[in-house]
Write a structure and sequence with these properties.
Layout: E1 3-9, E2 13-19, H1 23-35, E3 39-50, H2 56-64, E4 94-101, E5 107-110, E6 115-116, E7 129-133, E8 138-148, E9 159-165, E10 173-180, H3 186-220
Antiparallel strand pairs: 1-2, 2-10, 3-8, 4-6, 4-8, 5-7, 9-10
Helix pairs in contact: 1-3
């Protein structure tokens, strides 16, 4: 007997119990949720001015690690976009801006200071700290957010995922836990993982069928 049941669910996390499925099946789903689900993250930054105590490279890295809200299906990856431009277009990138200065006193720069040209693609929280500026210090930059996946860089990981075995049973019973970083809901991550897995399986099946057809054709011409 096989079954899949949701144990608990919120936008931030979801836990499912799989009964009667081999662990490698559940682990495949875990890997897809971790490495294949695409989300937006700042991938390129043009730094116009930085007099903060944070080095340029560290500041750019920190901006890239700030999770951004993402809408599934709205954007395409830069490699697949029809614009074929290094700068990108509205289909494959979103521009963000950060222009802050500590004029009269020390100021903490937060993710709420980041301005996005898109109403949806913006930091998941306004309270993520970036750097503290002393009086007179300033940062001015623009960045480009693009789709990516966890297999490319950790900044594109949509969730942390784990598989646990139920220790009080001898059956194949496992718990899959998905905890979203906030770019997508936990359910969106789960469903997108399944969709990508099914798509890859279909592609694999088509490749095998093509090989069989080529083999049969080769036999018929001998």
């Amino acid at each position: 007997m096989r079954s899949v049941d949701i144990i608990k669910e919120s936008d931030e996390s979801i836990s499912l119990r799989f009964l009667g499925f081999p662990r490698q099946y559940i682990n495949t789903l875990r890997r897809f949720a971790l490495n294949e689900v695409p989300i937006m993250a700042v991938d390129d930054v043009v730094l116009h001015y930085n007099s903060s105590p944070m080095h340029d490279e560290i500041l750019v890295h920190r901006i890239g690690l700030i999770p951004l809200k993402t809408e599934i299906g709205r954007f395409v990856s830069a490699d697949e976009c029809s614009c074929k431009s290094n700068l990108g277009c509205s289909k494959c990138r979103v521009m963000i801006y950060l222009d802050v200065e500590a004029k009269d006193k020390t100021r903490q720069v937060l993710s709420s200071d980041i301005v996005s040209e898109d109403d949806i693609v913006k930091p998941i929280s306004p309270n993520i700290p970036i750097v503290i500026l002393a009086k007179g210090q300033k940062i001015k930059l623009e960045g480009y957010a693009r789709l990516g996946s966890g297999k490319m860089h950790a900044k594109w990981q949509a969730a942390t995922v784990s598989v646990l075995k139920e220790v009080d049973t001898s059956k194949d019973e496992y718990i899959l836990n998905i905890e979203s970083v906030g770019s997508l809901t936990s359910r969106e991550i789960l469903l997108e993982s399944v969709r990508i897995l099914v798509e890859k399986l279909k592609s694999f099946e088509n490749s095998i069928n093509k090989l069989r057809e080529e083999k049969e054709y080769a036999k018929s011409t001998m």
